[in-house]
Design goal:
The structure holds 2 protein chains of 2 kinds.
Chain A (H helix, E strand, L loop, with lengths): L6 E10 L2 E11 L4 E5 L6 H8 L7 E6 L2 E2 L5 H6 L2 E4 L11 H7 L8 H6 L7 H10 L15 H14 L4 E5 L7 H18 L2 E5 L3 H7 L2 E6 L2 E6 L1 H6 L1 H8 L2
Parallel strand pairs in A: 3-8, 3-9, 6-7, 7-8
Antiparallel strand pairs in A: 1-2, 1-4, 4-5, 9-10
Chain B lengths: L1 H31 L6 H17 L4 H28 L4 H22 L15 E4 L2 E4 H23 L1 H11 L1 H6 L4 H27 L5 H16 L4 H21 L8 H12 L14
Antiparallel strand pairs in B: 1-2
Helix pairs in contact in B: 1-5, 1-6, 1-8, 1-9, 1-10, 2-3, 2-4, 2-8, 2-9, 3-8, 5-6, 6-8, 9-10, 9-11
Classes of the chains: A alpha/beta, B mainly alpha.
């Protein structure tokens, strides 16, 4: 891992009474790095994401982004600092056309309030939206309401939206969930391309082991709110404790 | 046949007024999950504020502008801050009860503070009628139709073709996702309340010359606007327009061809038929709700 951490999560805990959803997790993400987070259901991965991204306030611990303490900062403020995310469930705006979904994902970073009130409908983002539409191969559905498309297509839109504003850091929560296996390889290639062309750092939660092992040079395995193992994908995969956590004794 | 067309024209004009108030219902519901049962009183109060301004010497256009500013402050930002924000996290029912309370308070304040008698209100359009292909149409109907249609179209353009409108739609469709994308959801919801206040003031300007300014004038308008929104589809802004126009036309036809006694029941009957046949409204879409 790089010393010049983009994101530094230090001893983050989130307790709900006696339940320790996240219990002292620390890790760091360097510029341009892709980190995978794996773990069985209920291991605290999404809670960790929510704590990092201000959806919930951690019980203790700190989150630093580009050197600034952003612990408990709102998703709105984090978004303005260049942090994007996707959710496990679809978050597209079903009644808006695909192209508008992409524009709305980045328009808040354009101009001043009065400017935004009377700006051009595409907010100067039309070209960027078209680029993303082409990259994600959504040209044929670009003008359709997003809600009419298949789950897999909506998932692609969801991910494209997270990258529209060229964020510095993106947290992807189960990008392959519910996606047709034929799309999984396409999705991995897209993320690699975006990482190379935009240079952002990614943290990816995923249950699809093949996907995460091929995408992420560094993997963290969480169990019961704690980091059980971390390191290169092959090492984590071969770790007996990880195998036991997934498969039992 | 001429009577029929005249009834359609004047019914459409009245219906677009119901639609304006009904649009407020749908906008507030979509943006914040608020059902405002004081919507009729939000029309009544501006009518009296305009009357007050005109008594102080202001011409109608100035009274309207001043009332718009008042409505945005009190019925828009004030209503959101004092009533909606503290209650919205407790679910729909407390908010419904609170808005019913607001309606009662506004009626009582106007009756006690101004008058219980119906007050004349000047029309924004010239008096008189003109004939077109044998059909007699009043200038007021044409003016109302044009102004109401222009406002509905402008609102539709604003919501669908501007950055702010698109952000408002995003907040209405998925607030959490919109926040994650950097959209200031609170501000977008505030804009919705301000727009609703302006719509209520325009509705007051258009309907009060016919209904007369009276403390309880909002009961009928509020109910018809609510029915218009439900009939058209509570989650579709253009649904309120369809619902309002349908009510306006059917009221006229029933009142003329059947009996004026049944006119006031048309909106309720139409509402019952639509809610049984198509609960999501004529243009609405079925929504999943978390329970």
């Amino acid at each position: 891992m790089s010393d010049a951490s983009f994101l530094e999560v230090r001893d983050v805990r989130k307790h709900y009474g006696a339940i320790k959803a996240v219990d002292g997790v620390s890790f760091a993400v360097g510029p341009g790095e892709i980190i995978g987070v794996i773990g069985p259901n209920g291991s605290g991965k999404t809670t960790l994401f929510n704590a990092i991204l201000g959806q919930i306030r951690p019980t203790s611990g700190s989150v630093r982004f580009r050197g600034d303490d952003v612990t408990g900062m709102s998703p709105l403020e984090l978004s303005r600092r260049g942090v994007g995310r996707t959710f496990q469930t679809l978050q597209v705006f079903g009644q808006l056309p695909v192209r508008d979904n992409l524009i709305v994902a980045a328009q808040e970073f354009q101009g001043t309030l009065p400017g935004r009130l009377f700006a051009a409908p595409d907010a100067g983002l039309g070209e960027r939206a078209d680029e993303m539409i082409e990259l994600f191969r959504l040209q044929h559905v670009a003008r359709l309401p997003a809600g009419r498309l298949s789950y897999g297509q909506q998932k692609l839109i969801d991910i494209a939206m997270a990258f529209m504003a060229k964020p510095r850091l993106v947290l992807l929560d189960e990008p392959c969930a519910g996606v047709n296996p034929s799309l999984v390889d396409q999705l991995r290639e897209l993320l690699v391309t975006l990482n190379k062309t935009q240079g952002g750092s990614f943290v990816v939660i995923e249950h699809n082991m093949d996907f995460i092992m091929r995408l992420c040079p560094h993997v963290i395995c969480m169990v019961e709110g704690k980091v059980l193992a971390e390191g290169k994908p092959a090492d984590v995969q071969a770790n007996p404790a990880v195998l036991e956590a997934y498969l039992g004794n | 046949m001429n009577d029929f067309i005249q009834l359609i024209v004047s019914g459409t004009a009245t219906g677009t007024i119901y639609a304006l108030a009904g649009l407020g219902f749908t906008l507030l519901w979509q943006a914040s999950g608020t059902i405002n049962f004081a919507q009729g009183e939000f029309v009544m109060l501006p009518a009296f504020i305009m009357l007050f301004c005109m008594m102080a010497g202001a011409p109608l256009w100035l009274a309207f502008l001043l009332t718009c500013a008042f409505a945005m402050l009190v019925l828009g930002a004030g209503f959101k801050k004092v009533i909606v924000d503290p209650l919205i996290h407790h679910g729909v029912i407390p908010l419904v009860i609170a808005t019913l309370g607001v309606a009662m308070v506004l009626k009582t304040v106007v009756r006690a503070g101004y008058s219980a008698e119906a007050q004349q209100f000047p029309s924004s359009f010239p008096a008189g009628q003109f004939s077109l292909a044998g059909i007699t149409i009043s200038y007021a109907d044409v003016g109302t139709l044009i102004l109401a249609a222009a406002i509905v179209i402008a609102l539709q353009v604003f919501v669908t073709r501007t950055m702010t409108g698109r952000a408002m739609q995003a907040v209405a469709q998925n607030t959490d996702a919109a926040r994650t994308l950097g959209i200031d959801a609170k501000r977008m919801v505030l804009y919705t309340f301000l727009i609703n206040a302006i719509l209520a003031t325009v509705t007051a300007l258009l309907i009060t010359p016919t209904y007369l300014a009276k403390f309880d004038m909002g009961e009928s308008i509020g109910l018809k606007a609510f029915f218009a929104a439900i009939i058209g589809g509570f989650n579709q802004t253009r649904g309120a327009l369809l619902g309002g126009v349908l009510i306006g036309i059917l009221e006229n036809l029933v009142g003329f061809y059947w009996s004026p006694a049944y006119k006031e029941g048309v909106a309720l009957m139409l509402f019952l038929v639509v809610i049984l046949w198509r609960p999501e409204g004529l243009l609405g879409t079925a929504e999943e709700r978390k329970v």
